[in-house]
Design goal:
Helices cover 18% and strands 52% of the residues. The chain is of the alpha+beta class. The chain has one domain (2-246). It has a 15-stranded mixed sheet with strand order 8-7-6-5-4-3-2-1-15-14-13-12-11-10-9. The radius of gyration is 21 Å and the shape is globular.
């Protein structure tokens, strides 16, 4: 029996090694950072630490940890892409104020919720949103999936949910210009409400993408993160990726 057990050990070890090696190939975490700077002053405001979790070759979910200049955690967001890349489920928790917001998508029904602070109650609403539905970080996939059409000059429209408003707003995205950014061949798009009245009140969002990889290089506009006074940051967010993601 002892001899039989010894003969089995190498096989068991080999099987275990193959199993864990296969698991490592199936599950991957891609990490990168983006720094946010105040639009007016250029002052560094916070960092977004991104962790993309990939399973079986697909982007399953992301966890974004926001940290202040001292490295303290400000907020954490989880975006789940298994149901939809463009209309994902997500939850944001602000560790400073107790603010919470998020969305759950089921077909054309989007349940959004918002809790302004730890001392206030949570509000929620079920929305019937026409297609295409765009939720939170899904806007990035919305642009990337339609990159060639946008670069060719086509204007895209989508219905963007805004959890803290418990509502959605039709928005359009179109090309502004080609440019060089961070030594990359890039293209700038603008996203703005389609309603002309709302457009007078809401700041447009400018986004710059790498033409070769389709990666977002810079976001300029209103952040989904709140300042201590309750207003939202207005920032340039510059994304930095590992070299292998920009090849």
């Amino acid at each position: 029996m002892i001899g039989h057990k010894n003969r089995s050990t190498p096989w068991i070890l080999a099987t275990a090694i193959l199993f864990f090696a296969g698991s490592a190939l199936q599950a991957q975490v891609v990490r990168y950072r983006s720094n946010a700077y105040d639009i007016q002053s250029g002052k560094y405001m916070y960092t977004e630490n991104h962790a993309e979790h990939w399973q079986n070759g697909k982007h399953a979910y992301s966890i974004v940890t926001y940290t202040d200049p001292q490295g303290q955690v400000m907020a954490v967001k989880k975006i789940v892409f298994t149901g939809s890349k463009v209309a994902p489920n997500y939850d944001l928790s602000d560790k400073r104020s107790g603010l919470e917001e998020g969305a759950r998508v089921n077909g054309n029904s989007v349940s959004v919720y918002y809790k302004p602070s730890a001392s206030e109650s949570k509000k929620s609403k079920a929305l019937n949103v026409p297609s295409p539905i765009v939720v939170d970080g899904g806007f990035d996939y919305f642009v990337r999936q339609n990159m060639q059409s946008l670069m060719a000059g086509k204007t895209l429209t989508g219905n963007f949910t805004v959890s803290h408003r418990l509502d959605y707003f039709p928005c359009r995205i179109y090309k502004v210009r080609d440019l060089k950014f961070l030594e990359r061949d890039a293209v700038m798009f603008v996203m703005e409400p389609t309603n002309i009245v709302i457009r007078q009140l809401a700041d447009p969002i400018y986004i710059i993408y790498d033409k070769k990889t389709g990666r977002l290089l810079r976001f300029t506009g209103v952040s989904n993160l709140e300042k201590p006074d309750g207003s939202n940051y207005r920032v340039h967010i510059v994304f930095r990726y590992p070299d292998e993601l920009l090849k």
